[in-house]
Amino acid sequence: MNVAYLVVPFVGGLIAMGLRLPPLVGFLAAGFTLNFMGYEETEALSVIADLGVTLLLFTIGLKLNVRTLLRKEVWGTATGHMIVSTAFMVGVLSLLKVIGFAALADADLRVLAILGFALSFSSTVFVVKVLEERGESRALYGRLAIGILIMQDIFAVVFITASTGELPSPWAFALFALVPLAPVMRRLLEHVGHGEMQILYGVVLALAAGYALFEFVGIKGDLGALIIGMLLAPHASAASMSRALFNMKELFLVGFFVSIGLADFPTWGTLGVASLLLVLIFAKAGLFVAIFAIFRLRRRTSFLGSLALTNYSEFGLIVAVLAGSNGWLTDDWLVTLSIAVALSFAVSAVLNRRSTQVYEKAMELLPDQDPAKLNPIDRPIGVGQAEAVVLGMGRVGRGAYDRLVEHYGLNVLGLDTDDERVVTLRDQGYTVIEADATDPDFWEKLTLADTVDIVILALPHHDSNVVALDQLRKLDYDGEIAAVVQHRDEIESIREHGADDVFHLYAGAGIALADGAAEAAGLELR
C-alpha cells in the first residue's frame, strides 16, 4: 500500500485535533485530499473499512444491556425520533426539490426516504467519546443516549440486512443454536485471560462466528457480529474485551472514513446541500427534547441528552454506502452526507464542550418542573431518616453496613450501581437504592438529611471515591466521612480530598488476620 494512505490520514487527524475537532473530521478530509491527489480506493483499504464496521458492531453488542433497551424511555424515544425525523427530513428535502434545488431534481421518494433515514441517526462513536471525556457515561442522560444510539444501530443493521433483497438460506434457522452455545463462548472467555489471546478471541468471534457464519446462511454478516457480541455481553469480561478491541476497531474505522472521501470530490453544490443539512441538526435536537419531555424527564436530562445526540452518524454513511452499491444513491449524495457528518461533528464538539453554559442559558427560557410529576427514574433522591450512608455495597460496604446496624444500632442506607445486587440485597432485608456515586446527576438530585452523621465510601475504584468526596464537599456536608483504599499511595490523596478516616483494605485485613492468629496461639501484645 502506498504510504500516502497512511500519512495523509495521520496529518488530517492531527490537524483536526489541533482545531479541537474529532479526528474523524480529519480522516474524511484526508479521503477528499487523496481523491484530489489522484488516488483511488484499493482492495486493501476496502477490506480494512469492512473490518472496522464489523468490529464496531461487535463491540456495540458487547456493551448491550437488553434491559436498558426495554425501557420505554429508550425504545420509545429511539423509535419515535426515527419515524418523525425521517418524515421531517423527507418533507424538507421534498420542499427543496419543489423550490428547484438541482441536487434533488432527479430524487424520487425512495431516494428521499433513504436520505431521511440516514440522517435520523446520531453518531455512536462521537457521543460515547464525548460522554467518556466528561465522565458522564453513567449519568442518566448518558445511559439513555447510549441506549438510544444502540437502538438506532439495530435499526441500521436491520435495514442493511433487509436491503440485500435475498431470502436467507433454510439453514439460517440453525443460528438459533447459538443461544444455547452462548454459555460455552462465555466460559471460554474466562480462560483466554487478557492481552493478545482475548483480542484474538474477540476477532475470531466477530469475523468467524459472527460475520462469516451469518453470510454463509444468507444473512448480512454485520448483523451476525452484533448478535454474537450481544450473546457475550452478560459476561463480566465483556467490557474488558470491548476495551481491548477498542484501538483495533478505531484504527480500522480510519479506513472506512478515508474510503468515503475517496468516493468522489465535493463540488459547490454538494457543499451547499451539506451546509443546509447541518442547519437541520438543530431541528433534530429539538425533537429529542420534545420526546424526552413526553417521558417527563428533568430538563437537565432532556437537554444534555439531546445535546449529545445533536449530530449525524457514521451509520448514516454506512447506510448510504450500501444504498449506493445497490444503485439507489449516487456518489454525489455519499459525498454530501459525509460532509454533513463531518460538519455536524465540528458543531457538536463545540456545543458539548460548552454544555454547562448552553444548558444554563436554555433553562432561563423553560418553565420550572414539579418534582412530584417527574418520571420516577429522574426524581430527586432522598435518604429518608438514615443516620449513615454506605456508597458501594460490595463485600466491604456490606460489612460496614452490617457493623453499623448490628453493633451501633444505626439506621443505614446503602447505595450501589448494580441493579441485580440491589434486588438481591433488598430481598435479604437491606435498605438499598440503585444509584451511581460518580454520576453528577445523582449528586444534583440527592437530598442529604440532617440525620446523616456518617458516610462510608466503599466504592471499588479510588477515582470513584475521590469524585464522591468532591461532591459531598460541594453539598457542604460536615459529617464524618470514612473511605477505603486498596493501595498505600492512595491514602494521602483521599485525605486531601476530605476523608476524615481512611482504611487501607489489604493492610487492615493483614493486621486483623495476624491478630486473630496470634490470639489463637495464646500470644500477648508487647
UniProtKB/TrEMBL annotation:
Domain RCK N-terminal: 385-503
Keywords: Membrane, Transmembrane, Transmembrane helix, Transport
Domain of life: Bacteria
Molecular function in Gene Ontology: antiporter activity
Chain segments annotated as transmembrane: 7-32, 44-62, 83-105, 111-128, 140-162, 168-185, 197-217, 223-239, 251-268, 274-295, 307-327, 333-351
Pfam families assigned to the protein according to its UniProt record, in alphabetical order: Na_H_Exchanger (PF00999), TrkA_N (PF02254)
Gene Ontology biological process: potassium ion transport; proton transmembrane transport
Keyword Nucleotidyltransferase: no
Membrane association type: Multi-pass membrane protein
Subcellular location: Membrane
Any one annotated GO CC term: membrane
Family indicated by similarity: Belongs to the monovalent cation:proton antiporter 2 (CPA2) transporter (TC 2.A.37) family.
Protein name: Putative Kef-type K+ transport protein
Source organism of this protein record: Hoyosella altamirensis
